Amino acid sequence: MDWMLRDLAASVPCIRHIVVLSADGLCMAQHGDERDSGDRLAAAASGIKSLAQSIASELPGDEGDVKMVLLELTGGFFYLMSAGERSYLAVTADAEVDPGLISHRMRDLVLRIGEHLSTGSRTPERAAP
């Protein structure tokens, strides 16, 4: 999956970091900064996803599904997009990024590899009898 994330970064100038995360906030793949940064971004993205689900559940006819979240911040942009069952794609970018281009390229990436990004539900381990 690394080459696909590199391809996204190369196709959109100003991308800083890309993370593929599970719904519970585990970093599954990343492109950009060091590993700790990817883990922190995955955990933060999971929290933002949870907040967005709470807001979505207040909308009529919505089941609380999160398709995309966009945050415009002083230093740039944060994107979070559903990428498969229980998987998400998170991207940070500088303020100079083209917001339309990045969302379009993220959508293209999700369509290409979405079924490969799905993660199953985690089940607790059973104690040995």
UniProtKB/TrEMBL annotation:
Pfam families: Robl_LC7. It comes from the Bacteria. Residues 2-93 form the Roadblock/LAMTOR2 domain. SMART domains: Robl_LC7. This is Roadblock/LC7 domain-containing protein. It comes from Streptomyces triticirhizae.
